[in-house]
Amino acid sequence: MSRAALSSLLPLTVAIPLVAAVLAPLAARLWRQLPLIIGMGALLASGGLLTAMAPSVYGGQLLSHFMGHWLPVGGASLGIAFAADAWGLTFALVTAFLGALLILYSLSELSGLGSRELGGYTCLFLLLCAALIGSSLTADLFNLFVWFEVAALSSYALTAFFLERPLALEAAFKVLVLTTIAGFAIFLGAALMYANHGALDFGQIQNDLRAGARPADLATLALLIGGFATKAGLVPFHGWLPDAHMAAPGPVSALFSGLMVNLGIVAIGRIVFETFTPHVGHDVLGLLMGMGLVSALGGAIFALFADDLKRLLAYDTISQMGVLMVGMATGSVSGIAGAAYHLIDHALFKALLFLCAGAIVHMTGATKLSEMGGLARRYPALAAAFTVGVLAISGIPPLNGYVSLGLIHDSLRSTGQWIPYGVMLVAQVVTIAALGKAAWVALFRSRQSDEPFERDDRLHPGMIASLGVLSAACVAFGVLPNVVLTGVASRAAGALLHPVAYAHGVLASGGPITGSLVSFDYVSPLGLVTVLATIVLAVPVAWAAMRWGQSRPVEALHRVQSGSVNDYAAYAVAGLLALGLILSRGALA
Amino acid sequence: MIVGNYLSAVSLFSIGLYSVLTRRNLLKIVMGLSLMESSTYLFLISLAYRAHSTAPVLLGPPGHESTSTLVHGSVADPVLQNFCLTAIVIGVAVTGVFLAVIVRIVQHYRTLDADRIREMRG
DSSP E strands: which ranges in A464-552? Predict the structure, then answer.
């Protein structure tokens, strides 16, 4: 297909899931399972369209389409542009296909729900997926805000959807307060941007910023980073994340953690690298690096001491988002390629782990690690899938985490950032300890209590299929690193590192973007030694955590995460103020 | 006075934020967020204003103006006003979800105190 024809298909990738979201509740009146099947079909169709664009985009083209053909005049654009670059398309593809897989899983686990519930659930699920695809493709700041709000609204409803646990209500309220504050930040940021530059199109803003930045642009940048960092769950904007994941059922947690939080990362990448490019100096990258390191280490430590399995995984999501941010903040090709690679990896293994956790809750009724034990003998398939996920997060070859973590570590070493490198290694040790401990306690250690489990269900075929596909994908992305690297991740890095080509391509309805070359040495001695050393060090850490998990310093640590919505809002506001202050101290380059 | 607008926007925002950070009553938190929201609208409408400008309606201009003079600068910026319209619609939806969640919380917990609804911590 020609480039123009492909570009004109861009709006359809969002429109199909949106239309299906409207149809889903109606379809539920015909047949209870129909909405889920429609939803899966819609996401697969959307994914198919995106796949049709993939050869062209990963071949070095930018596809751009102006809604309603409101083309820019003299470089000034009033229309809303959708632009598929390798960075956004990667996330859109992951969303469409992983979303379809999660619906397949829901079909099996949630099939006991009534027709009204299934219709509503599918509608919200599809709205969230459509918003994620839209936000990864849009090239318009205000449009990005609108997709953010669509994602936010559907996530509120999904969090509070399953009312059998009152916890869901508490979680929904915290998500609502924090995301609303983030929404204000992004809204004000977009307005300030328009007021200062008279532009909302990323390409046009970049061109205008090239002519010079004003002090108000610092406030804009701080507001936008703070707003999207809330969605990404970075410290100190993370308060909502563990609660939201804990209350929701498996597929919803997998959707939140595997896909929704990435919206923040993708948007920050776009804003920092593709919009503010001429003014991104060490201060902005240093800020992102700091936020990433604190999240990576802090999330891992909280995960180590968490007793609820889903809460543990949610804290690990904070940690992994920090890792992604660190990769991006190196500003180097291999770091950003590593971040793009890790984004795919994290979506796969975290979805796998959350589905396993959801399956454990579904089958046994146990939510806390201390109530579990010996599950490997009862459910060998589930145990195998969970183990694959844990090994992948731990960065053990030949699973996928090894490559992306290796790339990010390489980039820190090659840019000579030794302190961040050290922090990342410590975070990795703690992460391995936390997840290894969880796997040991839940699956392999014999159970501590003699009471029978609340429920005794078995794995359904749809659940086994989804877990199998995700495990296979974890292996595939690990053993074929060069295909993914040269084909996808290096192209995504190229898109972020060639912002001028992006700006030109968006405004000219398409254009070339060159990729960047990244290589990864799969059997480098240093990489393998690092893996071995982190695992060896993780064993005593995990043992210590099990031994002293109830001690007083740990209790003090828990008090930081106080559960009070006022405190979480205060953390977020303090974080926003700190962002503004730090950015204004190192005035824009 | 446009400066007055900015000052009121900032003070409204601060009052709202104060209530979000210090009030434990769920309804008061939502009211605080609503105040913050309205202050952003006021701020945007003020950003859109230009000195001596009229509303951005280009058909049937007032007596001494023509459409072309309107286009060249004596109307308020319609884009920022559009932002507000979009955000008001979103805001209504969010407030609706907020209140629905609060109603269910009260049914379950029989309290509006945020400090007594924090089972998830640590």
Answer: 511-512
- Per DSSP, B63 falls in state T
Higher per-residue confidence, A453 vs A469:
A469
Phi, psi at A74, each rounded to 5°:
55, 35
Average pLDDT rounded to a whole number, residues A52-56: 94
Question: What is the C-alpha to C-alpha distance for residues A244 and A246, in angstroms, rounded to an integer?
Answer: 6
User: What percentage of chain B reaches a pLDDT higher than 70?
Assistant: 95
Please tell me the predicted confidence (pLDDT) of residue A2.
82
Measure in Å the smallest separation between the Cα of B63 and chain A Cα atoms. 29
Do residues A448 and A370 lie in contact, with contact meaning Cβ atoms separated by under 8 Å?
A: yes
Alpha helices per DSSP H over A198-239 = 202-210, 215-232
Q: DSSP letter string over A232-249? A: HT-TTS-THHHHHHHHS-
Do the Cβ atoms of A563 and B36 come within 8 Å?
no
ipTM field: 0.94
User: By CB neighbour count within 10 A (0-12 exposed, 13-18 middle, 19+ buried), where does A276 fall?
Assistant: buried
* AA letter at B118: R
CB of B45 within 8 Å of a chain A CB? The answer is no
pLDDT, chain A, mean: 91
Residue A384 amino acid letter:
A
Q: Is there a contact between B20 and A177 if contact means CB atoms under 8 Å apart?
A: yes
Rg (CA), chain A: 22
What is the C-alpha separation between A38 and A19, in angstroms, rounded?
Answer: 10
- Could you tell me the sign of the dihedral formed by the alpha carbons of B59, B64, B68, B71, in that order? negative
Beta bridge partners of A81: A66
Query: Taking CB atoms and an 8 Å cutoff, what residues of chain B touch A315?
Result: none
Among candidate residues A467, A169, A397, A458, the one with its CA nearest the CA of residue B104: A169
> Is A37 within 8 Å of chain B by CB?
no
Model confidence pLDDT, tens digit, residues B20-74? 999 999 999 999 999 999 999 999 999 888 877 778 877 777 677 777 777 776 7
Phi/psi of residue A66, nearest 5 degrees: -95, 130
**Which of A169, A184, A558 lies closest to B101 in CB terms?**
A169
How many angstroms separate the CA atoms of A286 and A238, rounded?
20
Check residue B118 and give left, alpha or beta (phi > 0: left; psi -120 to 50: alpha): beta
Distance (Å, rounded) from C-alpha A209 to C-alpha A31?
54
Provide the β-strand partners of residue A512. A61
Q: Specify the pTM.
A: 0.95
Q: Does A563 contact B118 at a Cβ distance shorter than 8 Å? A: yes
pLDDT value at A589 more than 60: no
User: Residue type for A187, please?
Assistant: F
DSSP A26: H
Secondary structure class of B60 (helix, strand, coil): coil
The token pair at A342 is: 């890790």
Q: What tokens were used for B97?
A: 């979800």
Residue A477 has pLDDT above 50, yes or no: yes
What pLDDT, in 10s, does the model give residues A310-340? 999 999 999 999 999 999 999 899 999 999 9
Q: Which residue has the higher pLDDT, A498 or B122?
A: A498
**What's the rounded Cα separation, in Å, for the pair B43 and A194?**
13
Burial category of A136 from C-beta neighbours within 10 Å (exposed 0-12, middle 13-18, buried 19 and up): buried
Amino acid at A407: L
Coil, helix or strand at residue A435: helix
Beta bridge partners of A521: none
Which of A167, A195, A569 is facing B47, going by the closest CB pair?
Answer: A195
Query: Using CB atoms and an 8 Å cut-off, which of residues 82-121 of chain B contact chain A?
Result: 83, 86-87, 90, 93-94, 97-98, 101-102, 104-105, 108-109, 114-115, 117-121
Alpha-carbon dihedral angle through residues B32, B38, B42, B48, given to the nearest 10 degrees: 130
